Amino acid sequence: MARSKTAVADTLLADGTITEIQHSGAIQHFSNYGGFIEESLIETGAVTEEVLLKALARHYKTRFVITEKLKTATINTKVLDKLSVELAQKHTVFPILLDEANRILSIVAVDPLDLDMEQEICRAAGLSTVRSFVSRPAAIKAAIAKFYKGDIHAFTLIDKEGIEAFQSMMDVYERNLLDEGTMVAAVASSGTSKREHVLSADEIDQRDKRVMDTGRFSVVASKNLSLEIVRVLVSLLESSRKDLSGHSVLTANYTETMCTRIGVSKWDEGAITLAALLHDLGKGDPYHLTAFNVAEWDGHRTTALKRFETPLRLLESANVPMETMQAIRHMYERIDGSGFPDGLNRAEIPLGSRILAITDTFSDLTSNSRNPFRRILSPSEAIGVIKESAKPVFDTNLLDLFDIVVAGDDIKRQLLTGAKSVLVVDSDAEQCAVLEMQLITHGFNVCTARTAEEAIKMLINDPADIVVSEVDLKPFDGFEMKKRLNEQSNINTIPLIYFTSRSASSDVKKGFDLGAQDYVLKPSAIEVLVTKIQMFLGRARASVTVDGVSGSLKEMSIPDLVQILGHGRKTGRLKLDSGGHTGEVHFVDGDIYNAIFEGKSGEEAFFSMIMFKEGRFSLDPSFTASERVINMTPEMLLLEGLRRFDEDNR
Fold first, then answer.
1. Given 60, 89, 185, 367, which residue has the most CB atoms within 10 angstroms?
2. How far apart are CA 460 and CA 117, in angstroms?
3. At 621, is the secondary structure helix, strand, or coil?
């Protein structure tokens, strides 16, 4: 009878190897990512590889083979020929030694007690006996990929840090390459041999302490800092990608939002977000290899088959989490199982890969003018395109959640920025990339220009809503650029903010004399610059149509709307329509001046509408309230309204 998928975790819990908390954590990880429970136990830190293998060898009454032995082994072709790759993959087993005289094949397996598996191999290979030793599932799969398929990078995805620390504690004999001679000694058939390579309790305790002190826990502790560094570096690398400049940062933002919404652990959230930042590393041109493009066009698929492991090879020597590597490696798997590299389907595909497939595609469709449609799609159009391909390619459950998350984020961005575009002009590549990344994070659509001439051409062809420019530019400075912009009748009204290191009072005066809206000195906090951008965009709100910002109350609740408009210090009339009942809330610089609903006004009208669940809303930013009727702050109104709602529904 087949064993339970979580039987190993249950066994380790029963014999005291892991605690209840470690057991629960591994089960949750397994539920999120699938695969093998053994890998979840290692990845969550419940056990190290050697502790796991020692416990399993004791349970199965056999020997274990560590990852390093498989990685550095020399396996005779006669051994490989005795077990087909199909059978090896089917049962997750790998042959290590052949005794031709006695027709005995020694293998490493995930479940050494699987008698049906051993009998099937005996019949297929014409053997008398199969001897099974236990090994880590990821190591067995890597060995299959390396020795059967020639993938020299197959072991990249396994945690090298743990291997190296364990390897350093092995004696000289066990560091020898795993050839037929050393294998006979290292994994002898007797279950009681003194040569079993296991560690003493003291050695294991010392190893665990070293991992806690210097291993993945230190990476977890510095996750936020590391991610911010990677964001900046990736922004710099992508600054020359033209239409794809900022793509990976945008993809990472969507990915991080999805992980937060799903509720994965902080470690997994960081690892998956890191995958989104690094997923395009080294893939190059001419194709942008999103999951959608690869599924739809043969040229993209052919290129992706050649390059999908390029980021992994570039990161091979880095201490990158296994979840990150898995998410990148499997982002071209398809829900129907027809993807690559391993033909995984549904929950077999790592969660990070399923999220990345969606966020990468969505980001491409909504920000890259050279996507397959040759125009930037609206969020709703992009979601529609992805949903058309959903059943064979994307996880429909995740896509439905993403639809809600994106819709809400898009509405918030429109409410705060009107989805306005910002042109950043800076000849310093690093400064330009960092500012671009920061503004994207705050919800703006950002374009960049590295020279004054390029900026003028971009504005003539596609005017931005506001320009943020350095003064020190090439081939002429930002003051000359502003002069030339002032001479262009169709774009001379575009607001411009200087964001510069030039602090001389004469420079500041010159900037304002030329008509700049503001002159902000570096290094000012990004929040200061964002506030000024929002302020000047707010002055131009009359150009926004009345129904320019609208949505469903299912996507954005009234309390959320009130908080967003309040914190964003917005002015306008929020119209509400629910089940034929209409009302409105008047905002001035984020404060609520009045509310009107079916003959009521003021606070009572607001309280009557606060818990509308169905219907639509729209913001008219050209409206300004004539008088203030409500004096409570938005926060106080929300608290009082929610208190009344709770009382009425007790």
1. 367
2. 70
3. coil
Sheet holding 518-521, edge to edge: 445-449, 421-425, 466-469, 496-500, 518-521
Q: What is the pLDDT of residue 187?
A: 40
Query: Which residue is associated with the tokens 């959608």?
Result: 292
Measured distance CA(73)–CA(348) in Å, rounded = 28
Average pLDDT taken over every residue of the chain = 81
Could you give the percent of the chain with pLDDT greater than 70? Answer: 83
Give every strand in the sheet of 549-552, ordered side by side: 549-552, 616-620, 572-578, 581-588, 591-597, 600-601
Report the pLDDT value the prediction gives residue 192, as an integer from 0 to 100: 38
Amino acid at residue number 258: M
Q: What domain count does the chain have?
A: 4
Last residue of a domain, one of 383, 414, 445: 414
401 shares a domain with 256: yes
Q: Which of 159-173, 314-328, 440-454 has the lowest mean pLDDT?
A: 159-173
What does the H/E/C string look like for 52-91?
HHHHHHHHHCCCEECHHHHHCCCCCHHHHHCCCHHHHHHH
Is residue 587 within 8 A of residue 565, CB to CB? The reply is yes
Top-confidence residue, 106 or 408: 106
Q: Which of 523, 539, 555 is the last residue of a domain?
A: 539
pLDDT at 226: 63
Q: Answer yes or no: is 17 within a domain.
A: no
Tokens at residue 6, please?
Answer: 């979580």
Residue 83 token pair: 């077990």
Q: What pairs with residue 132 in β-bridges?
A: 107
- The residue among 354 and 369 whose pLDDT is bigger is 354
Residue 24 within a domain: no
Burial class (CB in 10 A: 0-12, 13-18, 19+), 602: middle
Tokens of 132: 């099974």
The CATH number covering residue 282 comes to 1.10.3210.10
Looking at residue 167, what is its pLDDT?
A: 41
Instruction: Determine the structural domain holding residue 446 and report its residue range.
Output: 421-539
| Residue whose pair of structure tokens reads 């306008």 in the numeric block | 572
Look at 548 and 573; give whichever has higher pLDDT.
573
pTM metric for this prediction: 0.47
Does residue 4 form part of some domain? no
* pLDDT for residue 301 is more than 50: yes
Other CB atoms closer than 10 Å to residue 373's CB: what's the count?
13
- For the chain, what is the total number of helices (H) and then of strands (E)? 33, 15
Cβ contacts of 143 within 8 Å, gap of 6 or more: 70, 71, 73, 94, 108, 154
Question: Sorting pLDDT into bands at 50, 70 and 90, what band is 407?
Answer: low
